Amino acid sequence: MEIELLNFGGYGYFILMAFIFTFANCIVLFFITSKELSEKEKLFLDEFKQPASVKIKVATQKRHTKAVLSGDSIF
């Protein structure tokens, strides 16, 4: 029964080969795109002289946040 299901009416070989071919192409394209993205990212960081990681400063507006969240009038 299961072998008959994979046969696809006599076209199973062609269908499975098409799936394997498509899956292999998707994997190859993923790795090529990933490699190109990392190269472009390095060029961008070198051009703008920015470090690979950027520190994010958190705004210290707790005083204003407490006033707004408490329901007091801000005007």
Descriptive overview:
The protein has 75 residues and is mainly α. 68% of the residues lie in helices and 0% in strands. The longest helix is centred in the middle third of the chain and has 37 residues, at 12-48. The chain starts with a helix and ends in a 6-residue tail after the last helix. 0% of the residues are buried.
Strand residue percentage: under 5%
Low-confidence stretches: none
User: What structural category characterises the helix and strand content?
Assistant: mainly alpha
Individual helix count: 3
Mean pLDDT: 79
Biggest β-sheet: count, sense, barrel? Answer: none
Measure the end-to-end span. Answer: 76 Å
Assign a percent range to the helix content.
55-70%
What gyration radius follows from the Cα positions, in whole Å? 28 Å
By DSSP, the count of extended strands is 0
Count of individual domains: 1
The ordered string of helix (H) and strand (E) elements is: HHH
Outline, from the CA principal axes? elongated
